[in-house]
């Protein structure tokens, strides 16, 4: 969106795609390192399957997002459903619309599930090893406090854009239950555990502010019906900020 279109033609990967490719390689490696730090872990075969599913889901999402973001330059509007988009309505033959709906399914549903379920599972396993009986180890350094803002903003984007609030909130509740359980044993969160736990708390506050801000947006309400109303940032962008690109 920001860089000149001449640098990355629509039929070639964009700058964001290359960053996403790097993410698909670097993040699984970091997740394995997190698992190594936890004294409690899953069987090795289950860890490998989780990492494989993560890479598959993130890769599916990469392809789907790459195509969807290019459609913006052709007038695609993320705040509308696939069939309601003007550029999709005019497709001939009409069976092509089914293909775009399939792309949307792979991107928004299958890809997100295969990506985020292993991701949050591994984060929780890591969190189970972040407890200590020593109070001094529960103090976060200044660098961690400074990084908490970007970390929370990242999780906010994952939850809102990925539409995974249920997965996030269940993970958060599991973390709170574990903290209370370990407290009875005289254990407290160390600095790593505090960083992750506080990041999740700030993320919840950011989500609440985001929902409150867009609560009366009738167009987004139509796109996201139901009890859980959490609009995607991309839908907000194409609805209110599309003139910027």
UniProtKB/TrEMBL annotation:
Q: Which UniProt keywords apply?
A: Membrane, Transmembrane, Transmembrane helix
What stretches pass through the bilayer? 18-35, 47-64, 115-134, 164-181, 193-215
What superkingdom does the record give?
Eukaryota
Any single GO CC term annotated in Swiss-Prot or TrEMBL for this entry? endoplasmic reticulum
GO-annotated biological processes: lysosome organization
Q: What is this protein called?
A: Ceroid-lipofuscinosis neuronal protein 6
Query: Which species is the source of this protein?
Result: Chaetura pelagica (Chimney swift)
């Amino acid at each position: 969106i920001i860089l000149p279109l001449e640098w990355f033609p629509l039929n070639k990967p964009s700058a964001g795609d290359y960053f996403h490719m790097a993410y698909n390689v670097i993040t699984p490696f970091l997740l394995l390192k997190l698992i190594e730090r936890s004294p409690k872990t899953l069987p090795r075969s289950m860890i490998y399957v989780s990492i494989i599913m993560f890479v598959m889901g993130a890769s599916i999402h990469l392809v789907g997002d790459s195509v969807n973001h290019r459609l913006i330059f052709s007038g695609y509007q993320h705040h509308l459903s696939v069939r309601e988009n003007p550029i999709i309505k005019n497709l001939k033959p009409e069976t092509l619309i089914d293909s775009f709906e399939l792309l949307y399914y792979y991107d928004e549903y299958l890809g997100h599930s295969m990506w985020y379920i292993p991701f949050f599972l591994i984060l929780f396993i890591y969190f189970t090893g972040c407890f200590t009986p020593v109070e001094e180890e529960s103090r976060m350094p200044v660098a961690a406090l400074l990084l908490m803002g970007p970390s929370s903003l990242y999780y906010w984007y994952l939850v809102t854009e990925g539409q995974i609030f249920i997965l996030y909130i269940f993970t958060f509740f599991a973390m709170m239950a574990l903290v209370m359980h370990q407290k009875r044993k005289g254990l407290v969160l160390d600095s790593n555990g505090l960083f992750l736990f506080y990041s999740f708390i700030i993320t919840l506050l950011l989500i609440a502010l985001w929902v409150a801000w867009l609560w009366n947006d009738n167009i987004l309400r139509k796109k996201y019906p139901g009890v859980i109303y959490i609009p995607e940032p991309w839908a907000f962008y194409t609805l209110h900020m599309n003139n910027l690109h």
